[in-house]
Amino acid sequence: MNTRTASQTPVKSLIQARRPFSLANLFLRWEWLLVVLLVFVGLINTNISPYFLNTVNLFDMTFNFMEKGLMALPMTMIIITAGIDLSVASNLAMCSATMALLFKHGTPIWIGALAALGIGVLGGWFNGKCITKIKLPPLAVTLGTYALYRGMAFAMLGDIPVKGYPAWFTTIGQGYISGTPVPIALVIFLIFAVLFGLLLHRTSFGRAVFAIGNNEEACRYSGIAVDRIKTKLYMLSGGMAALAALVMAARFGSTRTDVATGYELHAITAVVLGGTDIGGGKGAMLGTGLALFLLGIIEWGMSLRMIPGQVQQIVSGAVLIIAILLPNLVGKFMKR
Fold first, then answer.
1. Do the beta carbons of residue 232 and residue 112 sit within 8 Å?
2. Phi, psi of 225, rounded to the nearest 5 degrees
3. What is the rounded average pLDDT of the residues 93-106?
4. Where are the transmembrane segments (predicted)?
5. What is the pLDDT of residue 2?
6. Distances (CA, A) of 49 to 12, 43, 159, 302, 305
7. Residue 69 and residue 192: Cα distance in Å, rounded?
8. pLDDT on residue 328
């Protein structure tokens, strides 16, 4: 048996194999722990404030983290391949600045929005090519573009915010589905969450993503286009960062170059807390979504208690560390 044939067998098993269904496997999933934590934190917030357990307030709460959620969706797939994208929030700022600059000079907002989407995808493509062609580590590449893209946003707009977006555009970030308390931004997120979930868990592309995270070299020997898949993932990340930029600009009705500062931390925290292994090969979109809402409820509860933003940042960092350590500790306990 030649080397190529031998390497195909484990990769095919990684792509095609499915765990047998059982109730034990179902209820021991990480997502159930997140559901329990959601209920627990919800009960705490209910005791903190009588206004928490209110339908309108609960829906309005989601305005605060929909942009983070949009960025967390492709981040899940990138981390499953053992990659990372630290530039995602800076890419958001660059896309927002691009749209704002064009609008400031008289370009229709929809053209500026399309340009922002193109710039976001281009920024992701640049990350992907540096990683796959030049063979630089994802951490180093996206740390560099983290500064580069934010700097480009400042170069385009400086410290002067751009305002005056048309009402139909701001409705995307501020409005509700007609006759309901459901924000339009929430619906946008849920649509893309379903699409990314199907892409990851129900397509050969998604199975290849898992296979790359488990054994990249075996995937290369078996003929899987690893570099092409990785580049597409970073392009998806850039495109979703651009979409998040549009939603954020619509929500605030203005654009500043310091928008979304630190949002990359929140997106990564949601992904890792959702059960995605930082070392690659494991993850689920449902876990990312549940973790996103869990973090959102925690932040909302801290806001109800008037806890300063600096303390909230400390809590977010602590949650990220716990999210990385806890699966390893649980895994060691189960082996014993």
1. no
2. -75, 75
3. 96
4. 32-53, 73-103, 109-127, 139-162, 182-200, 233-253, 283-302, 314-334
5. 42
6. 52, 10, 37, 11, 8
7. 10
8. 66
Q: What is the pTM of this model?
A: 0.89
Q: Cβ atoms within 10 A of the Cβ of 299, count?
A: 19
* Mean pLDDT calculated for residue range 192-213: 96
Angle made by CA atoms 7, 8, 14, in degrees to the nearest 5: 105
Q: Spell out the residues 6+ positions from residue 107 whose beta carbon is closer than 8 angstroms to its own.
A: none
The C-alpha atoms of residue 93 and residue 96 are separated, in whole angstroms, by: 5
**250 and 165 in contact (C-beta within 8 Å)?**
yes
Confidence of residue 3 (pLDDT cuts 50, 70, 90): very low
CA distance 261 to 109: 24
As a whole number of angstroms, the distance between CA 242 and CA 238 comes to 6
Instruction: Please give the helix or strand (H or E) that residue 253 lies within, else none.
Output: none
Read off the pLDDT of residues 287-335 as tens digits, 9 standing for 90 and up: 999 999 999 998 888 887 777 877 777 877 787 787 777 766 666 666 6
Residues composing the chain = 336
Which residues 6+ apart lie within 8 Å of 78 measured at CB?
A: 84, 85, 138, 233, 234, 237
Buried b (16+ CB within 10 A) or exposed e, 186-197: bebbeebbeebb
Sequential DSSP letters for 255-309: E-TTTTTTHHHHHHHHHHHTT--TTSS---HHHHHHHHHHHHHHHHHHHHTT--H
pLDDT at 243: 98
Among 245, 297, 306, 243, smallest CA distance to 273 is for 297
Listing DSSP states for 158-216 in one string gives TT--EE---HHHHHHHH-B-TTSS-BHHHHHHHHHHHHHHHHHHSSHHHHHHHHHHH-H
Long-range contacts of 306-312 (CB under 8 A, 24+ apart): none
Tokens matching residue 46:
């209910």
